[in-house]
Specification:
- This protein is an alpha+beta fold and 61 residues long.
- The chain has one domain.
- A two-stranded antiparallel sheet has the order 1-2.
- The two termini are 25 Å apart.
């Protein structure tokens, strides 16, 4: 199996974790991308530094 080492693969996760843990946006994000990040973060929760996604019932996946 080939391991994907492309640097952008997990950038969205880093941005999401920063937003959820610190409430701040990564530097250089446009107003539109900030809005997207804020909306995309709704189904996610950060527990002990681990990013989880919730389903519609709030159960962690």
């Amino acid at each position: 199996l080939e391991h994907n080492t492309h640097p952008d693969v997990h950038d969205w996760m880093k941005e999401m974790i920063t937003f959820l843990s610190e409430g701040t946006y990564p530097p250089g994000l446009s107003k539109e991308k900030r809005r997207c990040l804020r909306l995309q973060s709704i189904p996610y929760v950060l527990i002990d530094g681990i990013l989880f996604k919730k389903n519609l019932d709030g159960v962690l996946l």
